[in-house]
Amino acid sequence: MSDSEFLHSGDEKKTQVQSMFDGIASRYDFLNHFLSLGIDLYWRKQSVKALELKDGHILLDVATGTGDQGFEALKVANIEVVGLDFSFNMLKLAKRKIDKRGLSQKFEVVQGDAEHLPFQDNVFDALSISYGIRNVGTISAALNEFYRVLKPGGRLSILEFSEPQGWFFGRLYRFYFDHILPKLAGMMSSKSAYTYLPESVRHFPDRTDFKDLLSSEGFQYVNHRDLTFGMTAIYRGVK
Helices (H), strands (E): how many in the chain? Predict the structure, then answer.
């Protein structure tokens, strides 16, 4: 695999990612909050805000994980959420959290593949995916599916890690991602999964190329917003 320890495209990558996330599911929420110093909660709120949700909307949250994005969305409007993920173990935890909150009438979860969504055309008013677009086998195939299942006028919000553009913070970010984060995660969970993370960010298209991809799949009004010095970005589009 040349200079890569992991696969970064194709169907075999999806199997690799599924196994990886099944393995870290039990520690996923804790590590997300701990390793980001809690900033991930703010990032998700901003991603939900970009969807401009209104009462009665139906949201598809792809790569829903343990459901945090869906829970955040349910706070802002009286909506229904469908959470989809490739990892069975992540969805088990999401379902447990949904039941504990008494939200089973508002939030359902489905095991499935972002590149082959098990839904009809023009179903959802909004679609979100947070830190999951890096993990699909073929990005263009997933974006094509997102476009298909959204209603005309439906909004897309993609939250994803990005490389900070400033010299100082960029170097600091890469040092933390490449050296500190895998070691910290390895003490509490899987070092492999958090070694994959920075490598997958490096293989992800840059901001301009990714926005071009969104436009090429038919999305309009495509734009992005950097958060926290460009550590992460929200990409937005409308069908």
Answer: 9, 7
